[in-house]
Amino acid sequence: MSAHKISLNWGLSAIAFLALPLLVSARPKTTNPENEKKSLQLYENATVGGKTLSPGTYEVLIEGKKVSFERNGQTVVTAQCDWKTMDHKSPYDSATFSKNHVIQELNFQGSNQALEVE
To answer: Which residue among 7, 18, 43, 114 is the one 20 to 30 A from 84 at the CA level?
Structure first.
């Protein structure tokens, strides 16, 4: 083997070795963590799990398959939930309501995961 081929092989090996940490750090991160906390502003009455939420700011705590809505440090209601993957990232935080003002889905800015509230 010539000296040129040996140095070329060493050069490629060095590049591959140096690029490995970049590839590992570039792997996709979980977009629907097990526990998450978000803020939700309601401008009119809404319903979750049969409980009416009055207008105001709520902390939304997602723990596995359960979501809790808290106001002033008190849990107002807890409901079942599940993540679904959308075909796009949400441009902003939003909520989807039924015609009876039941919260059905929460979308979070920059995420392609939506939280379905049951």
So the answer is: 43
